[in-house]
Design goal:
This protein is of the alpha+beta class. It folds into 2 domains: 213 residues, no CATH class; 81 residues. The protein has 8 helices and 11 strands. A 9-stranded antiparallel beta sheet has the order 3-4-5-6-11-10-7-9-8. Strand 5 and strand 6 form a beta hairpin. Helix 2 packs antiparallel against helix 3. The radius of gyration is 25 Å and the shape is elongated.
């Protein structure tokens, strides 16, 4: 297995040189076109491979519409199923109509029930994240805000940068030992290189004293779909063990090497979790996950962001 990983690392190093010229253009991802349509409507864009998709808001509205419209149908179906036998005896409806209603009406309920289950799971996940952020705010005496639009803007790397309909809801903000810290949920439609994906990410951050060039640190087991949304070239390090554990993507390799000095690399190698990504962007250290699982509490995200920020070499943060 280790030999296979080393072979993959060498292959990435060989291809990274050929991608270097295009890395600058792809670092922030292929920006989505300006949104001139109504929320929830379909659109076709040649820059995205002529693929049609719906925005995050459109998906929500469609799901809510299915749920609302299915309620009257469900009521009628239950009434007919319960009373239909008596109506057949009295001759009000035929036996064939009654049997067909039970069969085809039941089949029509399948996608409706699927929409209800999906809506319930989504609401449960959102309520869980809201409760987690409120608990984090109480624990650190920080401020809970239902909407933080400033945290949805200013990023330079996908999927945060260029996301259509990007929004941060909710968020917590505060300060720890003079350093601004917080956590939030980022949502939007991200598109890079013709691929489009609705993202809902859990993020914690620690703000650096000054911005430094952006780069990504991805554990090897990080979500493959999200990894494909990221641009920039792979940066290799002298340590094979570190290359096996972390994938570094940056257009400014010098900054990546300066930040990831032996002290920082040792810390990252000993960090127990392998499902959290680290990003430096616009003066923030962001720790984020795919949003599909809630195994890692946001306290873990926040602890990693704080520890990483504390280990950034001081000479990079001074004028």
């Amino acid at each position: 297995m280790r030999e296979l990983r080393r072979a993959r690392a060498l292959a990435r190093l060989a291809t990274s040189r050929s991608r270097a010229s295009a890395a600058t253009a792809t670092q922030a991802g292929t920006p989505l076109p300006a949104d001139t349509r109504k929320p929830g409507t379909r659109f076709t864009d040649s820059a995205l491979g002529n693929k049609q998709f719906r925005t995050l808001e459109g998906v929500r509205r469609t799901r809510e519409l299915i749920v609302v419209c299915s309620i009257p149908f469900l009521v009628v179906y239950i009434v007919v199923a319960m009373m239909g036998g008596a109506w057949v005896v009295q001759g009000w409806i035929s036996a064939g109509f009654y049997d067909g209603w039970l069969l085809y009406g039941g089949l029509a309920l399948v996608p409706m029930v699927a929409a209800w289950v999906f809506a319930a799971r989504t609401n449960l996940r959102e309520n869980s994240i809201n409760a987690e952020l409120k608990s984090l705010a109480r624990r650190h005496h920080w401020t809970f805000v239902p909407d933080a639009p400033d945290l949805a803007e200013g990023w330079t790397l996908a999927p945060f940068a260029g996301a259509r309909g990007a929004m941060v809801r909710p968020a917590v903000r505060g300060e720890r030992e003079g350093l601004e810290c917080g956590a939030f949920r980022f949502q939007g439609d991200a598109g890079v290189g013709g691929k489009v994906q609705v993202v809902a990410l859990r993020v914690a951050y620690a703000r650096l004293p000054r911005p430094i060039p952006a780069f990504d640190l991805l554990p090897e087991g990080f979500d493959a779909a999200l990894r494909r949304l990221l641009g920039a070239a792979d940066v290799e390090f002298e340590s094979p063990q570190f290359n096996d554990r972390w994938r570094v993507k940056a257009t400014d390799a010098r900054t990546a090497h300066a930040v990831l000095d032996p002290r920082m690399m040792e810390f990252l190698m000993n960090y127990p979790r392998e499902d959290l990504a680290v990003r430096v962007d616009n003066g923030y250290v962001l720790v984020w996950d795919s949003g599909r699982r809630a195994d890692a509490p946001l306290t873990d995200h926040l602890a990693l962001a704080w520890e990483f920020a504390q280990r950034v070499p001081g000479h990079l943060l001074t004028d």
